[in-house]
Protein: Oxidoreductase
Organism: Sinomonas humi
Amino acid sequence: MTRHIERSWLSSQDSTDPRTPTGRPLNWGVVATGGIARTVVRDLAMLPDATLHAVSSRFADRAEEFAREFGFRRHYADDGGVPGYAALAQDPDVDVVYVATPHAQHYEVAKAVIEAGKNVLVEKAFTINAHEAQELVDLARARGVFLMEAVWSRFLPSIQRAFEIAGSGELGDVQWVSADLGFPAPKDPMNRIWAVGAGGGALLDLTVYTLLWPVGTLGFPDSLTALGTLNAEGVDEQNILALGYSGGQLATLTSSLLAQGPRVATVAGSEGVLTTVGGINNPSGLRVQRGWDPARTEAFDVVGRGYVYELREVTRCVQQGLAQSPTMPWSHSLSTMRLFDGVRQQLGVRYPNDERASR
Ligand SMILES: NC(=O)c1ccc[n+]([C@@H]2O[C@H](COP(=O)([O-])OP(=O)(O)OC[C@H]3O[C@@H](n4cnc5c(N)ncnc54)[C@H](OP(=O)(O)O)[C@@H]3O)[C@@H](O)[C@H]2O)c1
C-alpha cells in the first residue's frame, strides 16, 4: 500500500545557513518571559532579518527586565484589565508574534494576535484540543495571516534527513517505528507540567515530538490504543501509544515525566534500520544499517540551540506572504490535536479548556 507522505518531508534539506536573510526585516513580538521564551529569543537574535521589537508579560517588571536583557525596543504588561499580549498585538509596528505561554493560554493569545491582523508562531502543543485548533486555523484563513505551531524539530537538518532516508527506499518498506521521550520532571506543584489548568502532562508536552517519527515515515495512523498513568490532578504522568496502519505497519510511542528514557527513535524496514544518535528532539547523528552490513553514521551540526531553522521558516513564509508553512502545515497540527483528543478520551484526561469547547 502506498501512503501519502507530505512532499516537503521527502525533499533534500537546503544546506544554506539558516541565518542567511531571505527578505525584508520583520519586527517580532514575544508573548511571555518564561523558560522557552528566553531560549528561543537567543536564537531569534541570530537572524539578521529579525528585529527584537516588543515583549509582553503579565507583570510590568518582568516585561521591562526581559526587554532590557535582550534589547527589545518596547515592552507591554497587563494594565487595567487589558492583557499585555493584547496591547502587544495592537502595536502597529509588530509583524509577527511568538506565543510562549503554557498550552492552556495558546488559544486566547493567538486568537487576539490573529484578530489584530498579525502573523503568529504558537508554541507546541498548538492548543489544548482540536476544537481550539480548528478555530485558530479558520480565523487565520479568514484574516489571511500566517499561523504555525512551533514544532522546531521538524525543521532540523537531521530529522529532515531521517525522513528523506526512510522515503528513499534505502530501508526497504518501513514496517514499524518506535520513538521515546522521557525525563523525570521535578515534582513542583507550581510547575505547569503537572497542572491540569495549564494543560499539563506527558501527552501535550512530549508526544508532540515522538509523533513526528511515525507521521514523517508512515503518515497519520488509522487506529490508536493508549495506556497512561494519571496524577492526582488527572494529567498523564506517562503514556504509551500503539498506532496501527491499514497496510499492517505499527508504531509505538512512549512519553514519560517520571523516568529517564533512552530518547531514541527507530525506523525499521524490510531491508534496513535507522536509529537516532544523541537525542530524539535534536539528533547529533543518524545510524543506518542495511541487513547485516556494517552500519554508517551521518553526523549533523546545529546552529544555535536548533530553533533558528523554524524561525527561518516563519520569516521566509511571512516575507513571501504565505498563510502556512509547506513543511509544518495546518493539517499536521489539526490531525495531531484530533489524535491527542482521542488519546485523552481513552486515558480519561480532561482540561478546563475542554468545557468551553463542549458548550
Ligand atoms: N520548543 C521547545 O523546545 C519547548 C521547550 C519548553 C517548552 N515549550 C513550550 O512553551 C510553552 C511554555 O513553556 P515554558 O517551559 O517556557 O513555561 P514557563 O517557563 O512556565 O513559562 C511560561 C510563561 O508564560 C507566561 N504565562 C502567561 N499566562 C500564564 C499563566 N496563566 N500561568 C503561567 N504562566 C503564564 C509567563 O510569563 P509572564 O510571567 O511573563 O507572563 C510564564 O513565564 C509551553 O507550551 C511548552 O510546551 C517548548
Q: What stands out?
A: Residues 23-152 form a domain with the Rossmann fold fold (CATH 3.40.50.720). The radius of gyration is 20 Å. Residues 32-37, 57-59, 62, 100-103, 105, 123-124, 150, 152, 192, 205 surround NAP (CB under 6 Å). The first strand starts at residue 26 and ends at 31.
